[in-house]
Amino acid sequence: MHHTGLDSFIAQGSATLADGPIAIVLVEDEVEVDTTLRHHIQCGFAQVLALMPSSFTLARDLEETVQRIDYNMSADGAMEKAINRLIAAAPGQWFYYCFNAEYLFFPFCETRSVIELLGFHIEERRDSMLSYTVDLYADDLAQYPDAVSLENAHLDRSGYYALARPDIANHNHPKERQLDFFGGLRWRYEEHVPPTRRKIDRIALFKAKPGLTISADHTFSEEEYNTFACPWHHNITATICSFRTAKALKRNPGSKYDIETFKWHNSAPFEWHSRQLLDLGLMESGQWF
Fold this sequence. Notes:
It is built from ten helices and 14 strands. By secondary structure, the chain is of the alpha/beta class.
């Protein structure tokens, strides 16, 4: 179904937002839009929302299966404004968000749906789930100048680390159960990435509630939402495998000509399977066996 904007979509009320969990795909350009939407349909989301410019094309089958919403992702604060409006419109609903050319993976996702994932997570009294944005990139930038190739995607198998997240309001003491995670292309090419955009952690799955808001740095107004686990044991984490940083580095005039290849000695072909991500420690199953 095609909506002329968020106002039109939200105005339909319970008819559009009652069925969840809901995936929000924020479409910034026309790269791998269809594959992104199909991937998240296959994950088992009850609805997939495609927020995208009206000038972009969409495959016919997707026009019939996703909620297409006209939206300008180039506007300042477009991500947080859209998500905050949807949070306010659907308290109690579970949401997931990503950008085009990003693909959600979670433990055992080949045989279990996102509804099963959230069902277990809810039993552990969690209203949010930490995810790591793992950069994907084409192996041959001469053949794939935009750095995007599903068939020849690679990732970094090491080079990830975490630092304590300082609490500015409490003399920069570390926040409880919160860390800032780094790695991938944003770490290797940090001279081309603003400091505010170097983190790879994102609370991509969350339960909407009254008054909850998200910020541009992908953190929420309620501190417990930003924690990586509950106090008593580790929880499930997920991974968003993303071409977004590679695309940006090859489009930005300041970095485009400085990078001949993203491959290095710690590159590995991406297998498009959760087992590889679990083996590399890029997500964990927690108590979910």
